[in-house]
Specification:
globular; mainly alpha; single chain; 70% helix
Amino acid sequence: INLGLLYYNGRGVHQNYAQAKMWFAKAAAQNNANGQYSLGVLYNNGEGIEQDYVQARYWYEKAAAQNLPEAQTFLGDIYKLGQGVPQNYRQARYWYEKAAFQGFATAQYDLGLLYYEGNGVPKNYTQTRIWLEKAAVQGLPQAQSDLGAIYELGLGVPKNHAQARYWYTKAAIQGDDDAQAALEKLQHTGH
């Protein structure tokens, strides 16, 4: 898998997706979850091969069965977006939850968004805040920014401009443009 990653990222060698695919396939053939996941990424993104969501899902499912949270999260994305499968928010939730309960920040964020939007679950701002906060404390800037908005708008919590500013600042420090704009807006309104 490591040689595949070197070729995939072009670290120390010229970037070469065909070589990356070969090394990922060797790892996947040995039931290596990271190799399976990495093949899924190549197919999902169409990098060096024709984009194929069915193949991406196949490889993600193999890695997800070994509890790799990155693969579980990408499966959630496939079902949320209906890529190569009928759109199914309940399936998306299932996979996001599997990864989120392992502490994977991106899945926690995605699960929070499902609750915010009411897709596959009843709309629930308290659950939105809980999942966004789990991702935010791990440093995920988009979760920090969205958590700031939850506190600014009082969605499922009392309005709290100090908390909003705190989370917006954490996200803005990491380069989140939305958080920076929200901070400026808070400052202009005297909060």
